[in-house]
Amino acid sequence: MSEAPAPRRAGLWLWVPLAVFAGFFVLVMTGLLAPADREVASAMIGKPLPQFDLRPAVPGRPGVSTAQLADGKPRLLNVFASWCIPCIAEAPQLEALARQGVEIDGIAIRDRTQDVERFLDANGNPYQRIGADDLSQVQMSIGSSGVPETFVIDGKGIIRHQHIGDIRAEDVPKLIEKLREAGQ
Amino acid sequence: MIAEIGLACLWMAGALALLQLVTGALALTSKGVGLAGIVRPVAVAQGLLCGLAFVCLIALFLRTDLSVKLIATNSHSLKPFIYKLAGTWGNHEGSMLLWVTVMALAGAFIALVERRLRNDTMLATLAGQAFVSIGFYAFLLLSSNPFERLAVPPPEGNGLNPLLQDIGLAFHPPTLYLGYVGLSIAFSFAIGALVTSDVGPAFARAMRPWVLGAWLFLTIGITAGSYWAYYELGWGGWWFWDPVENASLMPWLAATALIHSSSVLATRNALRAWTVMLAVVAFSMSMIGTFLVRSGILTSVHAFAVDPERGSFILALLAIYIGGALVLFAIRARTITEGARFALTSRESALVVNNVMLSAILGIVLLGTLYPLLTEAFGEKVSVGPPYFDPVGAIFFIPMLLVMAVGPLLHWRNDRLGRITGKIAIPALLIGAVLLGLALFAPSLFTPSFKLLPFIGMGLAVGLAVASVMPLIGRNLRRTPLPTWGMVVAHLGIAVSLFGVATDSAFATEKLVASRIGESHTVGPWSITLKNVEPVAGPNWTSLEATMAASYDGGTATTIHPQARNYTSPPTVTSESALLTRWNGQLYAVLGEEADDGRWQLRLWWKPFVPMIWYGGLLIGLGGLLSLIGRVARDMKRSRAEEKIADRRERQGR
């Protein structure tokens, strides 16, 4: 603390702060390059969808209900909103999935008809059905806390997988794999 | 056009920073001495250009120019004027531009006025300053361009996060930034002093106002941020040991230590290497804090602009600056000769204890903040909170407070404890009396579990408040220098804050009820009746507003209005708590959701003396301000006197 007790020994001590910083650097480098999986698995995975029946969000596409979702075929259920920016970012990936023959249903959260229409015009419409969830009630009941989120639903209407956040290009193979598993 | 002018200014400022670094460094060599003359003007020009770039961004936000990407994603034409203005820095790019602007303007300012340092130290300081700036210019221009245009402007902007649409928060981040950047100046001074091995009182005096100013802004920023979290988030808490809060606390701790050690260096020419080290650490903590917040590497309620690319960029800057400075320190520190010696019982020793304790607390906070990251690397998730920070911090905080009561009474260099026994006895007896009184008359402190820390805290706070004014006893108050007043006020502020913290954690009462209209509830000494709940509308929100009648101890009722607010763009729900402040505490009411049976969820708190936490924070800031004014005034007087003497010599010489 008070200055350098003996010059020779002090020399080594002076490098200690640098060593501490190097430790910090390595630690955050690992944290940045290999981010730990922080997502808490939804308690709803493996459980059947709760009962709901949502009105159509846009004219020309039917609404979404539990009964229709359990029609024997696995599908994606995408929670989105016209006011959500990451939803625009994931639109091309949804389009690509739809082109590969994946059935996708959407739930529009706290939205207005004309806004959803504008959103679909601008970003494409991969959805077979779109239900309007004006008070986020269905969203909450299936264990989703934000937009966008995407669920893999199997043919019996059981939630098999939950993807939180926008679907990036690198997430597409995993979703297809989960759909395949759900179909078995 | 404005965006293009802004971008051009920013590029030119970046180029000038490079010129400032190169000329500043060359001027230190024997061949480049001729370049010394242009370093100061370059620094001034760099400051002006960067300032102009920032003005351009403000203009764009005020006009809501939606062809600029940053404005389209962060602003909205219907936003009130003040939030359009605050929107300039309420986002990643704008806040980085604010950062570099303040840094450039501060550099220009020292280039203009600082004349006390040796010429070569000054050149090295300005070069160091430019070196730090260049990284931030590169970050802005290459990775976070605030002036980027959109090919197709959207019809309307995206809005600003409604939580941020609060007057307190509009000015909270820039306040902290001023603090961080002030520490960057201290860092540059330290680099300059290390390069030329010129660490002495002149260095401490030149650096001190910047540290004081930075510390002042950090204090105000933390106090305001804590109050904002308290009333806006509706959790009734005022500090959560959240990574972002810790990120602002760590530079504050380092700066507090630096203020104290630089006063030893300025007055007694001791603690030389240590002061330089602290100057490096203080700015490092600002950068590490910014990194932890911006990279999203730690989960936090505040997380924004989470982006691995940005994270890597800031991390690279960290490695260059902090790593570089520490290497420079390791190489050069041994050329810094030993400072003046002092006895064990002396003001220097008390300040050393203060420094060691503050550094230990800093280490504890840093460790606690990074610990989740460390365990994650080994595949385990943990969350570190008050059960760690409170007791472990207290181990060092309590001894530090005791020394803080005694230290200011001691003489420099060498003293006897016996000389000041009288002055210590009064606060010591008071602590004993308060603890005894609490033990006898406050049974709630001991059941169901003994609240040890609040118990000690209340006693210490009272004793400390008295001890902090002791240095004024026996002095002529009118002739007492401002920095001494500053110290007294700041130490008093610590005692006041501590009192608020301790009483709140000891005696706060909370009630969570589902209430029908017309029902009454008691919380602490208050009786609260829910009168009705009605919708109201604001400029960009709609809200449910409750009307409640609150009466204290059977007195006349006061009406309060907590709200649950729905913002439209983007859609977000916030709770506006209602606060009722009395001299002895605060009533805190939050309106929750409506249950199916028509009852409303209410959260009610009675928090004795809780506002003292923030009054104390303001007192601490006021102490810093008094000290700063005192120092700057004295510096100005001295430099005027020196000019006069030089003038006279010149005339006599003729």
The proportion of residues in beta strands of chain B is: 5-15%
Task: Tell me the Rg of chain A in angstroms.
Answer: 24 Å
Oligomer: heterodimer
Instruction: Compute the number of strand runs of chain B.
Output: 10
* Total number of beta strands of chain A: 5
> How do the strands of the widest beta sheet of chain A line up side by side?
3-2-1-4-5
- Order of helix and strand elements from N to C terminus of chain A: HHHEHEHEHEEH
Within CATH, the superfamily of the largest domain in chain A carries the name Glutaredoxin
* Sequence of secondary-structure elements of chain B: HHHHHHHHHHHHHHHHHEEEEEEEEEEH
The greatest interface here is: A-B, 27 and 49 residues
> What is the second-level CATH architecture of the largest domain in chain A?
3-Layer(aba) Sandwich
The low-confidence parts of chain A are: 1-8
Global morphology of chain B: globular
With helices defined by DSSP (H or I, 4 residues minimum), what is the helix count of chain A?
7
User: What would CATH call the class of the largest domain in chain A?
Assistant: Alpha Beta
Computed structural class of chain B: alpha+beta
Could you list the spans of chain B in which at least 5 consecutive residues all have pLDDT below 50?
A: 300-305
Mean pLDDT, all residues of chain B = 87
What's the main sheet of chain A like? 5 strands, mixed
Taken from the alpha-carbon principal axes, the silhouette of chain A is: elongated
